[in-house]
Amino acid sequence: MPPHIVVAPMLVALGTILAVLGLRSARAAQRAVSVLGGAVYAAVVGLLTWRVMLSPAEPTPLVYQIGGWPAPFGITLVADALAVFMLVIAAVVTLSAVAFSVRFIDEQNQRVFYHPLFHCLLLGVTGAFLTGDLFNLFVWFEVMLMASYVFVAFYGEAPHTAAAFRYLVLNVIGSAVMLLAIGGLYATTGTLNMADMSRRLAAPAAYGVDVAPVVGLSALLFVTFALKAGLVPFQFWVPAAYRSAPLPIAAMLAGVTKKVGVYAVVRLYFVVFAGASLPTEFGPISGNSPLAFLAPVLFAMGAASIVVGGFGAIGQSRLDGVFAYSSVGQVGFIVLPVSFAAAAQSASFRRLALAAALVYALHHALTKSLLFLSTAAVRGAAGTTNISRLGGLAAFSPALGGVFLIGCVSIIGVPPLTGFFGKFLVFETAAARYAAAPGLVPATAIATLLAGALFTLLYASRAWVRGFWGEQTEAVATATLDRGQLSILAALALVVLAVGVGFDPVYEFAEAAAEAALDRSAYVDAVAPRGGGGQ
Amino acid sequence: MTTTITRTTIRVVVPIVLVVAILLLLQGHKLPGGGFIGGVLTTAALVLVYVAYGLDYVEMEVLDREVESGGGIFERRIVTAYRRLFSLGLGLAVVSGVAGLLFGEPFLSQSFVVFHGVPIYHEVELASALLFDLGIYGVVVGGLLTIVSVVGAE
């Protein structure tokens, strides 16, 4: 009997969509079911994590063939440590965002399909993390995007419509490029199953596969993923979209859907394409797999993201604008270690770098959701997020001030919060890279990271000092704070603290996830694609 | 668009399109077709009716109901019906997928029975995949017609 737990998170999200659609007229019940759906999702992901990470009786990774069709023909779901790590991030952010939405989004807007769309977004994310099939990855991307289009246009005024239009056009082009690349890969390798593709690319002669086009097609795919992750030069849709979407959704977009792009890069390049080899004599590129081509591109994009995001965030006048730009910079911090991992020769350094990227992804998801949700609480209380019209919020509500401070301090990277370990590991990989081979690239990396850390310090402390200290402004003096919102924020702040204080198991989890991303043969063996062998 | 030529053509074309749509829906589990493509074709037929006869025609002449004036497009009974069709279709598709779990099979497992000795057809194959297809059909028709009606009314 197959382990049904693998498909359970998707079924929970689907079931919640159905239930909240059916309960549209009973508003209180709809909200309760929506939050309950988030809680059940988290519980199911917890159970799946336990089965994958801790249960000794289970083979890992867990594989599920939908409809009972065997591997290369049917649709495969794979829950390995990497997928589960990302699912845990999604579950934590989702639960806090959905609970916060119920208290934050106004009555009228919650009625307009907010809850079904929220769970649709979650369904798309879950599918993208679990699928073991390239075309299905595209499908789940679309499910996720459909919901997010509506959310960006949610408030329906001119700037929101403009942001949604830009977001829509860009992502439709991205999706077309992705579909083109997937079609090309299917034509080249003769399969869509990721494990099967990995197997065929590792032994091209046996399956009659031409490796050269794969490099170009994988670059096309990479463009789409970079677009989703909002890396420079594909970052320009990010700030407008994040500012337009309802703030709890901005937390989801920054915390979770951005990570889907990063996850897809890691999964495809380290699991699917890593086995391919192609001798090259091209200038600065060393190594002979598509990974080697990826490394310099990813490095340049990550470094540019840190700089652009940092500059952008400093210039913003609204809290949500600051954090929207900050997301561009922070994703650079995730991507730089991935580029080190791609360029690395030794397996242990590769694992260290990937683990650093994953820890940073976790930190960013938790901290940025905390900051976006705090911004939402500020808007709910004071009616504005304009920094110059705020002031004295900390005296007005020490609890809100405390929560916001934890978010700011974590994103700056002060121990013992999650942000410290994220930054520390990223710097450690850069330093290790420099120690192994001193040169211009690692030196640039360290300089960029330092600059990025400085930018973070500047904009986070500016938001804190101007918004929360000083004279109380008129907006703050007449503000009313929702206690329910505050308790959700406090819970999330505790999670940020707890992950930092009890960091050891978290790091072990991230290391296992990195290991899973690098262990190509375990992935292929677990999915066990049959047939299609030889010419 | 409401010329006599358009109206006459559509009167001939729409029944043909609908029959083909149902044919595609019914053969979907064995041959090219299925709920999605059948649903899109059905929607196309109804859109043709909308184009030639207007939005209110379906509600007033076909369903013989009064069109309530006032209120947004969302309050129209036919739009509510489309939305309900969407929800029901999604529900049917999920239930038909989950049904396999009850027999210990993976999600979305399907099965079929063949009846022999049926008059005219000789043998009829009843597949559980048809239920899933029907669900998808409902989702597509309900969703697309909601969009067409609401956007068309703007």
From TrEMBL, chain B:
Residues 5-146 form the Na+/H+ antiporter MnhB subunit-related protein domain. GO terms for cellular component: plasma membrane. This is Sodium:proton antiporter. Keywords: Cell membrane, Membrane, Transmembrane, Transmembrane helix. It is a multi-pass membrane protein. Coiled coil: none annotated. The chain crosses the membrane at residues 12-29, 35-55, 85-104, 134-153. The keyword Chaperone does not apply. It comes from Haloarcula limicola. It is found in: Cell membrane. Its main location: membrane.
